[in-house]
Structures are given as structure tokens and as C-alpha cells.
Amino acid sequence: MEFKRARTNAQIEERRKEILIACAEIFDKGDIDDVHFKAIGEKTSFARSTIYKYYTTKEEILLDLLLIDVMAWIEDVIEFTEKYEVLTKEEFCRQFTKSYVKNERLLRLMSILYSVLEKNCSLEKLTEFKRNLMGFMAPLYQSIQKFFPTSSDEAIQTFISTTSSYILGLYPSTHISEKQKEAIKQSGFEYEIMDFEEMCYKGFLLLSSVL
């Protein structure tokens, strides 16, 4: 296969897109340990060495994949915001919960955002990621303001921050591995794995008290 250097912005973006599609396919079928440049290179139309021209680490690729998933999640928030004129706190928290449940890869990536992804990328990439992330938050603010018009900006920010922190810990605790399940069984410890959607809703409802 003849290698052709990407020269235009469109070609460069096409290369990035191809890398992200390959990364998504690998991560969806496995986990972060399965994502590496060799595996990604096997799924792209260009050599593995070319990936380094766009990304320094696999975590930087996963950060871009997370941004794509955030945008998909925001679209779901916009959808229910436009669908309903009025929602009670209970109804809003149920819809808000469903928007997360529909985007499981977002939850998987968010659960390792601070402990893994952000630790293994450059300051430049991390700054770019956070700047882009903040740019996506406007529709979320607008949704909360629509259904809770008397809430202050501080209250809305608190709700967004606390719900995000809540699901960061909730998701991995409700999606444990077979090895973890077996360890619990052998230890004799009685532990019932919680249902993520129901626990998410209940948590959001409690945290919505600030609105």
C-alpha cells in the first residue's frame, strides 16, 4: 500500500476520524488495556507510525473519543428538553438519567477520566480537551434553566458538578468484572450489585434539591 501524506485540513481530519473509529471499535469490544497504537494501526489505512503524528498516547485518542460521546449525550439532553415544556424534578431526573444510560461508552470513559486518561496526556492536549468540554455545556445549562427557571447559576453549576462526580463512582461500582464477582463470592461477603439506572435516578433526585 502506497503511503500518502495528509496535506490539507480535510485530509488531516479524515485521518483523525479513522483513528477514532478504530479506537472506538477496539474499546467497545474490550477495555482500555486492549487499546494501543499497534491494534489501532491494524485497523487503519496507514502505518502505525503515522498515528504518532496526531496523538502522543492512547489516552489522548480516548479523550477525543470522549468528546464525541459528550456531544452525543448533549444531543439527547437537547432532545428531551425540546420535547417537554414542563417537567417535575422527578420527571427531569428520570429523563436526565436516561440520557446517560443511552450513552454507556461515555460512562465507561468518564469513570477513568481523572484516574487514567488525564494523567497520561500532554498539558496542551488536556487544556484543549477541557476548553472543548466547557463549550459543550451551554445546552445543559439551558435545559436546567428551562425546567427550573428560579434556580441560580450557582445552583445549576452545583447540580452539574455533583451529578458528574456521582456517576464517576457509581458506574464502576455497578459494573464489576467476573473476577471481582468471584472474589466477593469467595470472601463470603454479602454484596448485591446495584442497578445503575435506578441508583442514578435516586442520586440525581437527591442532588436536585439545590435546584
Automatic annotation (TrEMBL):
InterPro entries: Homeodomain-like_sf, HTH_TetR, TetR_C_34
Keyword set, alphabetical order: DNA-binding
Domain named HTH tetR-type: residues: 13-73
Pfam families found in the cross-reference section: TetR_C_34, TetR_N
Residues in the DNA-binding region annotation: 36-55
PROSITE patterns: HTH_TETR_2
Molecular-function annotations in GO: DNA binding
Protein name: HTH tetR-type domain-containing protein
Lineage: Bacteria, Bacillati, Bacillota, Clostridia, Peptostreptococcales
